[in-house]
Amino acid sequence: MTHADADAGALRQFISFAKTSGLDLDRILDRELRSIATAAPQAERVPAHAIVDMLQICSVVTRRSNLGIALAQWGNIRGNSPLSLLWDHCPTLADAIRVNSRFAELESKAITTSLDQQIDEVAIRHLLLVPARYGGSQFIESVLLLATRLGRLILGEGWSPVRIEFQHSAPEDYGLHRQLFRCPIEFGADRSAVIISRDDIDRPTEHGNAHLLAFLERHLETVRSAEPVDFVGQVDQLIAANLTSGEAMMDHVAKLLRVSRRTLQRGLEQKGTSFTLRLDAARRRVVDEYFRTEKRPNLNLLAYRLGYSEASAASRYLRKNMGLGIRKIARPK
């Protein structure tokens, strides 16, 4: 099992947000999360699941279904990570998306990003890579609003996405969501993504500086290359990004990593795991999050998210790997 981590800056921002918002973290959080929050002011890295769990717990306890986006709107978009150095100098939104995808692990290993490209639109998908014990909807909503704010930083404050898609169900009240995203919002979608016009992706920005951007990219590459290579984390990211397309297979992931199938197997074995275990962990995260957030589970939709072409395959997976039928696992707890 891997222990993903994240830059502590985002957690420190959440703790500051909690204080200004009247959230009593000492009362709300359990002992483990309280200890992480206490250590955050002096820490460089923290467990990646911490802010995911903290946001979800605080949302449930305070009955604030918009807590994630409230945090994303409140936070300093330039204060979270080294990536903030790049954004003001990106010549296009495509450049911002590219550098975010390239260096996102410097900020957090809790989430991965991939692109779904259509003729007129590009979907920036966001997928959780860590087990979310209490659900991850608030964290996902926060990330998507941060991505929207990044778009406005690049293209101007008047810009908005074509639409926002969330895999989880809609809260009872999402007025603040409409106010902050300023575009159509679809809940219960096949993915969690910011949908952007292809014209907006390639539109030149007013203050872009390709030469300075290249310099800063080289600097961040130096920072990244100095860190230990998280081979298992790379595999997890590629599995998550290719699961719904049905391409989360060993040969395909090895090709993306530019290694042989045998090298991929050996690298995972040296870390005490295997491709089968990584794939199963990814599917378990999908199942856990799906049944936490869906009020009316749909086996066909779950099969798609698990990378299966038929609902019967998803049903067999639930019985064989999790020991539960869909009716039992979907039953409210």
UniProtKB/TrEMBL annotation:
Domain HTH araC/xylS-type residues, every copy:
233-332
Q: Which InterPro entries match?
A: AraC-type_N, HTH_AraC
Pfam families annotated for this entry? Answer: Arabinose_bd
Q: What GO cellular component is one of the record's annotations?
A: cytosol
- Domain of life of the native organism: Bacteria
Keywords, in A-Z order: DNA-binding
Question: Which molecular-function annotations from GO does this UniProt entry contain?
Answer: DNA-binding transcription factor activity; transcription cis-regulatory region binding
Question: What name does the UniProt record give this protein?
Answer: AraC family transcriptional regulator
Source species, please? Answer: Sphingobium chlorophenolicum L-1
Q: What is the lineage of its organism?
A: Bacteria, Pseudomonadati, Pseudomonadota, Alphaproteobacteria, Sphingomonadales
